[in-house]
Design a protein that fits this description.
- The chain is α/β, with parallel strands linked by helices and 370 residues long.
- Helix content is 46%, strand content 15%.
- The chain is built from twelve helices and twelve strands.
- The strands form two sheets. Strands 1, 2, 3, 4, 5, 8, 9, 10, 11 and 12 form a ten-stranded parallel sheet that branches.
- Strand 8, helix 6 and strand 9 form a beta-alpha-beta unit.
- It is globular, with a radius of gyration of 21 Å.
- The relative contact order is 0.14.
Length: 370
């Protein structure tokens, strides 16, 4: 089980002080948060990709490459890589380069994004969103797995005898999660390839999330990748903690009430009841997170959103200290004890490399016995 944090990179006014950090301050704060995540024993730091205010994470590989140079264990990921508006050739090259720089500590999450205007900014039509996701990812897989690619599709110029460089580290492409909140086609895509499926359920009721994950699991089994409960699932979550639960509620309420996404909507209490948002004590977060397994089955990755809505960096770092010292150790122990032996752990570069070597050895053995 992997635990980590993801950032949407919003630059939002602190409603308690009226202060808004600069873009530069926010970018450097995200780096500080990633370093803190490794310090407190988390496994993953993931950044979103946005190309519009109030967000600043327009170049995930630049940020993750910088963080890679300052960490040694942390898995560097994205909480969205825009498969629809990025060129698959550039994705193939950028993330292979990051793989080498980070010694394999890299995976990424493909997504269509939730900002409609981004499509024409990059020369695409939002009405082609699903088709772009399907075609671009099919090309990306070939670019990582074939040394020379001839290709022709509907949304970019053809390729003739093209080799993406650098090649993936050790010949093993980064593991891919497909992130979707509402599109069954993306769950189907993840299942078809045997990739991971990440449901960022921070805004959605449990029943919707369960239906999407169950669809992915059924189709994963249908395509012969393993039993349904062996499918690779990740979940989002959103927490704010203090030792006393009422203190947490009182402190977080103004940030919730004014958040750019859900502010001025449902009450904090209603939102907490209907979605995975947990504002309270560390024990409440532990119990709520363990409850995800009961609803969605065994899963491999849990990422928490903790640095949004104008929360000051000092507060976010305090939250990470609590998460790393009081919450994650308990969750690790409990999830590991509950997970059946046949359910796989989250893929890493090391495990994927070992699997590729086993497959190659088996293939060589079969050739010699023919």
């Amino acid at each position: 089980m992997q635990f980590g944090v993801f950032s949407v990179s919003d630059v939002t006014q602190d409603p308690t002080t009226g202060k808004t950090v600069s873009e530069g301050e926010r970018i450097k704060a995200m780096v500080t948060i990633a370093l803190k995540a490794e310090e407190v024993g988390l496994d993953v730091f993931a950044t979103g990709e946005h190309h519009n205010p109030p967000f600043v994470a327009s170049s995930p590989t630049t940020m993750l490459g910088y963080i890679a140079a300052r960490t040694s264990k942390l898995i560097l990921s994205t909480s969205t890589t825009l498969i629809t508006t990025n060129d698959p050739v550039k994705i193939a090259e950028d993330y292979a380069m990051l793989q080498h720089l980070a010694d394999g500590r890299v995976d990424l999450m493909m997504g269509r994004g939730n900002t409609g205007p981004v499509y024409p900014w990059f020369g695409q039509d939002i009405r082609n969103g699903i088709q772009l996701a399907v075609e671009n990812y099919a090309l990306l897989r070939r670019l990582w797995r074939e040394d020379v690619v001839d290709w022709e599709g509907n949304f970019r110029t053809p390729l003739q005898g093209f080799t993406s460089t650098p090649r993936p580290l050790d010949g093993v492409p980064p593991f891919v999660w497909h992130g979707s909140i509402r599109s069954p086609e993306i769950a189907e895509q993840a299942a078809y390839y045997g990739d991971g499926f990440f449901h960022n359920n921070i805004f959605w009721p449990a029943e919707h999330t369960r239906q999407m994950i169950e669809l992915y699991r059924r189709r994963f089994e249908h395509y012969g990748h393993g039993a349904a409960d062996q499918a690779i699932v990740g979940l989002g979550g959103q927490v704010f903690m203090r030792k006393n639960s009422q203190d947490a509620v009182n402190e977080f309420r103004p940030y919730f009430d004014n958040a750019p996404v859900y502010g001025h909507g449902p009450s904090l209490e209603d939102f907490s009841r209907e979605t995975p948002l947990t504002v309270g004590s560390p024990q409440q977060v532990i119990e709520r997170t363990l409850g995800f397994r009961e609803k969605f089955g065994d899963y491999q990755r849990q990422l928490f959103l903790m640095d949004h809505a104008g929360l000051p960096l000092k507060t976010v770092l305090e939250q990470l200290d609590i998460l790393g010292s009081e919450v994650v150790p308990v969750l690790r122990k409990e999830f590991d004890a509950l997970r059946p032996a046949h359910v796989p752990a989250a893929p890493t570069h090391t495990s994927l490399k070992a699997a590729a070597e086993r497959a190659q050895s088996l293939e060589s053995l079969e050739e010699t016995t023919r």
